[in-house]
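Please, structure for the following, as tokens.
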Amino acid sequence: MNKKSYVKAKDKKISRRNFLKKTAVASGVALISASTGPFVLKTLAKGPIKVGLLTPLSGVVSTDGTGMLYGTKLWEKEINESGGLLGREVKLLVEDTESETKISREKAKRLLAKRVDVIFGVILSSTRNALASVIRDAGKLLIYPTFYEGGVCDKSIFFTGAVPAQAVDRYVPWIIEKYGPKFYYAGSDYVFPKKMFERAKEVMVKHGGTAVKEEYVALGTTEFSSLINRISAAKPDVLFESVVGRDGVTFSKQFYNYGLANIIQQCSIVKLETHMEGVGAEAGEGILTSHPYFQVIDTPKNKKFVADFQKIAGKKFPLTTNTEGMYIGAHLWALAVKKAKSTETDKVRTAMWDLEWEAPEGPVKVRKGDQHLWKQSRIAQYRNGKLEIVKSFGLIPPGPDICHLWG
């Protein structure tokens, strides 16, 4: 090869090298030089941050699960419009649990196989308990948004919904003072109603109340006449109720049709805006419920939350405390990722401890010890077709620390 040909060949190699460098930078790929060979390509971990959402979009609690989906989509939109996390886009991967525990486990494994950085979601306590080992073994976190019975200590779970200290400890004494001491307990037959009733009865007894009877009905029950007849015969002052999902809507309609709504005060711990719309204005009039969040909270923060949510879900789809709990959990996780400068589970977990955030319900705070939240506590009553807040107790701690695992 003559000198002129050699120079041309050398320039061609240099041009190709520059071309590869420019292409690599544009596509998020690094050029690595090997001492004994040519430049090679190595992919950088600059793809999207994958967030898994497990939520029931079908089955007995599908309405609540759909609300959680919309709330998480709103969070995804807000994060990405503000520049993403760690300079990366957030990508939401969704799986329908179908309100079934066994299916939920399989769907969780499917999300984990897609290498999600975290999992948000689920509603029923039985589902959460079944998923815990799957998520723990994978070294990931579950952000659990639903109000629940309390008492679970798990390093792999952050609990952003209300617990008994926030849901019944002030609610029950208020009920006794206003409506009387005789309580009839009726709930769905699974862990949440049973554990919540245990706590409610302890508080009730301390404040001079008595339990007339306690009953549970299977999930999927559609005929409640026998139960309602027994409630009527017992003549309680209060029906303390935890019949969940579509079952609870059916139950309250039948309770009203039997003519008991104006005789016995119905006090729920599970009724949400979605359920009350199903019950209807006439049958639902006067029903009480207790949660940290209600859509009617009159603050600029919540008004913006409602307006932004309705752009995604539609104006007819109501917001609930479960949806807001998911929205809170998602934002707290994002804050922790920014603080940790990483999506690595151990770093994010530590970064989430003691985080505070101004949520639509008001200020909330993560407690380090057991990864539960300080939350607001409120009572609302269904009047003229909507839930109206009748009592606010402010920011309430989640009861005694049940873990003490981290100092």
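Residues 176 and 209 are 7 Å apart (CA to CA). The two ends are 74 Å apart (CA to CA).
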